C-alpha cells in the first residue's frame, strides 16, 4: 500500500558531518569578542583612549590577536554614541557572565556605568532653550 522511503530523511541528524564543531565556550568567546569589538569601535569614536585600550586588551585575549582599531566616524551625536555603547556593554556583560569571565564582566559593567554617567551629565547640562517660554 505504501512505498518504503528510499532516501535518508532530511530530519536525520548529521553526526558524521565533515565540518568542525565548536564548543559552547568557543561560541561564547566569539560572541563576547564581537560585542567587545563593537564596543571598542564606539569607544574609539567617542575618543576614550584609555577605555579603548582596556577593551582592546580583552578582544586580543579572546581572539588571540589584537583588534583592528580605527575611528570610523558616523557623525552621530555623543548622546547617541553613549546609548549605543551602553547597550553594547550590556550585551558583553551578559555573555561574560554566562561564560564566567570575571575580567570582561567587570570591564563591561564599568563601561555601562561610565556611559550612564555621561548620559546623566549630558541631560543635566543646560540646553540653551527656555522652558515654558511662549
Q: What features would you highlight for this structure?
A:
single chain; mainly alpha; 4 helices; elongated
Structure description:
This protein is mainly alpha-helical and 134 residues long. It has helices at residues 24-46, 49-63, 78-98, 102-124. Helix 2 packs antiparallel against helix 4 (102-124) and helix 3 (78-98) packs antiparallel against helix 4 (102-124). The N and C termini lie far apart (85 Å).
Helical content stands at 55-70%
Radius of gyration: 22 Å
- Inertia-based shape: elongated
Q: Give the strand content.
A: under 5%
**End-to-end span in angstroms?**
85 Å
Spell out the helices and strands N to C.
Answer: HHHH
Number of helices: 4
Low-confidence stretches: none
Counting helices, strands and paired strands, the structural category is mainly alpha
Report on the biggest sheet: none
Oligomer: single chain
Number of β-strand runs:
0
Gist of the model:
With 134 residues, this protein is mostly helical. It is built from four helices and no strands. It is 61% helix and 0% strand.
Question: What secondary-structure arrangement, pairings included, does this model have?
Answer:
Layout: H1 24-46, H2 49-63, H3 78-98, H4 102-124
Helix pairs in contact: 1-2, 1-3, 2-4, 3-4
Amino acid at each position: 500500500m505504501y512505498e518504503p522511503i528510499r532516501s535518508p530523511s532530511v530530519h536525520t541528524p548529521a553526526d558524521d558531518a565533515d565540518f568542525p564543531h565548536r564548543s559552547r565556550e568557543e561560541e561564547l568567546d566569539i560572541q563576547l569578542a564581537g560585542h567587545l569589538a563593537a564596543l571598542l569601535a564606539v569607544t574609539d569614536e567617542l575618543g576614550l583612549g584609555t577605555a579603548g585600550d582596556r577593551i582592546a586588551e580583552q578582544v586580543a585575549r579572546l581572539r588571540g590577536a589584537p583588534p583592528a582599531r580605527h575611528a570610523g566616524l558616523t557623525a552621530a551625536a555623543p548622546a547617541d554614541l553613549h546609548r549605543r555603547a551602553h547597550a553594547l556593554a550590556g550585551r558583553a556583560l551578559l555573555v561574560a557572565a554566562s561564560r564566567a569571565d570575571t575580567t570582561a564582566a567587570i570591564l563591561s559593567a564599568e563601561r555601562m556605568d561610565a556611559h550612564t554617567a555621561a548620559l546623566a551629565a549630558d541631560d543635566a547640562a543646560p540646553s540653551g532653550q527656555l522652558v515654558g517660554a511662549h
